Structures are given as structure tokens and as C-alpha cells.
Amino acid sequence: MKVHLPRAVLFLHAFPLSREMFAHQFEALEREGIPYVAPDYPGFGEEPALPGELTIERLTDHIVSRISALGIRKILPVGVSMGGYLMFDLWRRYRSLLEGLVFVATRAEADTEEGRKARYDLMEKVRREGTSPLVEAMLENQTSPATKRNELKMRQLRCMMEKATPEGVVATLKALAERKDSRDILPSIELPTLVVAGRDDERITPPGVVRGIAEGVKGAEFVEIEDAAHLPPFENPESFNRLLLNFLRKIW
Questions:
Q1: CA–CA separation, 115 and 125 (whole Å)
Q2: What is the domain count for the chain?
Q3: How far apart are CA 150 and CA 143, in angstroms?
Q4: CA distances for 162 relative to 155, 156, 166, 168, 247, angstroms
Q5: Range of the domain at 56
Q6: Is residue 102 part of a domain?
Q7: Full-model pTM
Q8: Does the keyword Hydrolase apply (predicted)?
Q9: Where are the alpha helices (DSSP H) in 149-236?
Q10: What is the pLDDT of residues 162-209, one digit of tens each?
């Protein structure tokens, strides 16, 4: 039987992690009695890979079908990195579902030719060698100095990343490489919008890049979180949870 919820927070995780990266947010929302849903992407966490080619649009449809099956009528997505790309597609095609947007450590731009080639090269490497090279690179590039000093957090990240299947990684890398540029739709976004960057994110989405989303969306709030790089909800959950709960209180 469906449980019809008027609204829920939708957590969309970063690549190549899983819903587990939001464990601290789950605890915070449960204390406040705020409903949430947090799917794993196909091939990540506990979710098996999908057969056939993957696109951002197919991923979005997959997630929306899950939301619909739960009877959720309105969502407020919190998307980290890749999760932000899905949020742009949600705005394009499912905007009636949305009540607000929280973009975290993501960008509106499509990949450059150089970036696209790097993803295709990485796909071939994962096909040959498995996900180990990807895991090592992501552990280095996605984390702040403070996170690197925290052995428990680094072990947790490694465990999440090692759950990703080679099939899921390869299919998702192609979807990321071929995604649309979303800068043109920023002025059309007319929802309460929070944009968050990790102050120490120097390699993937530096704060100046993330800020571009806030500059394009009228009335958006932009915040940098210290002691965090590409994964602010995981790296500095205390600061992130304060931001998120304050934002939710304003809207709901």
C-alpha cells in the first residue's frame, strides 16, 4: 500500500558513493520528524546496475519512478556533485514535483572536450583494471585536508566507493560525459535555492565554479563550508545540517 506523503527531502549522492554519504543528514531529519528518501543510483550502494545505456535523463526517470511508488507528491532535492546534474534535469522535466533546490559542490556547465575525454579514458581504465584506480583518485581529489586526517571518515568513504560495480561506474561515467549544459536554464529557476560549496574543493568544483549557479538563479543563497572539499554533507555534517535545517524551516 502506498503511503501518501505531502513532501519529502530527496538526497542525491555524489559519484562514486552511495546514499550512505548522507547518514548524518538522516539522523538530523529524523530528530526533526522530516521525511526523506535517498536512493542509490544503479550500480552503486545496494542498487544493481541497469541493463543498457545510461543517460542523466534515464537516471532521473528511474528516481522519479521510485518517488512515485512511495506516493510522495512534492520533493526538495539535495544534490551533491552528480546529484546536482540530476536536479537540473528534474527542473527541466519534472518541475511540478519541486518545492526548493539545494545544490552542493556541483556545476551548471557541461564537460569540456578535455573533461569528456578524461571520463572516456577512465571508463577504459575501469574496464581493464576494475574500480581500484578510481577509488584511489577520488579519495584524494574529493576530500579536504581535515577529512584526510580523519581515518574513520576515510575508511567510510573507501567502503562506499568500493561497493560501486565496474558496470555501474562505466555506464555512469558515459552519462556524465554526455550530459547537457545547464547554464541556460538557471534564470528560469524560480524556487527557493541554496547553493553550497566546500571551501577546500580545489580539484573538482572550486567555490568560484559552484557560485556560478547562485549567480544565475535569482535570489539564491550561496554558502562556503569550511573543512570540506567536494563532499560537505559528509565532511562537515554539523555545519551542513545547520544550513539545511534552516533552509527547510524557511520553506516548510
A1: 15
A2: 1
A3: 10
A4: 10, 10, 10, 12, 33
A5: 8-251
A6: yes
A7: 0.97
A8: yes
A9: 151-162, 166-177, 207-216, 232-235
A10: 999 999 999 999 999 999 999 999 999 999 999 999 999 999 999 999
